[in-house]
Amino acid sequence: MRHVRAPAAVVVVVLFGLVAAVSAAAQDESPAASPAGSPAAAVSAVLIGGGQPVVAPGHELTLRRVTLPPGTGIPAHTHPGALVIYLESGTWGYTPLSGIVRLTRAAVDGASPSPAEDLVMETEVILNAGDVLYVEEPADDIRNAGEDDVVLLVAGLTRIGEPFTMLMEDMPTPSGSPTP
């Protein structure tokens, strides 16, 4: 019997297609440890599905739906890998702090999407429905910049065993480094 391996990009596309077919049995998870009552505590993330691709040993591929109500966000944080983030709805403020960050703006009036552009670090950009980010080993700061919920579909290829999101203030300090 012959086995065919799909490249990781095909797996991501297939996972995006499964979003409409997912039942309410998806697991809830917190995007980051946040104090109760803080704006980040109101952010929700639902794990839609995932698996461990044979072509990426030591990593897992997941798809999440993240919702940021108006007035909320997640302060400076990191992710342990590469993400493709699709803005399904809302107006989203995104500030890249480090890593590789490329933005593809949504197609307008039937035209092709814009070519991907590298974002300037520590400068907020406002994204709208249909915009897509590719980020690798990112540190970023995000917020809902509008009046409606921001809904993101986040496909991540991340290292197994590491938290998907880690607030920068919660990150361990390397030994020998002063504590801020």
Q: What's this entry about, in short?
A:
This protein is mostly beta strands. It contains one helix and eleven strands, in the order H-E-E-E-E-E-E-E-E-E-E-E. The longest helix is centred in the N-terminal third of the chain and has 11 residues, at 8-18.
Walk me through what this model shows.
This protein has one helix and eleven strands. With 180 residues, the protein is mainly β. The model is unreliable at 1-37 and 173-180 (pLDDT under 50). Strands 1, 2, 3, 4, 5, 6, 7, 8, 9, 10 and 11 form an eleven-stranded antiparallel β-sheet that branches. It has one domain (35-161): Jelly Rolls, CATH 2.60.120.10.
Number of domains: 1
**What is the CATH third-level topology name?**
Jelly Rolls
Overall structural class, as computed from helix and strand content, comes to mainly beta
CATH architecture annotation name = Sandwich
What is the overall pLDDT average? 79
Percent of residues in beta strands?
over 45%
What is the number of beta strands?
11
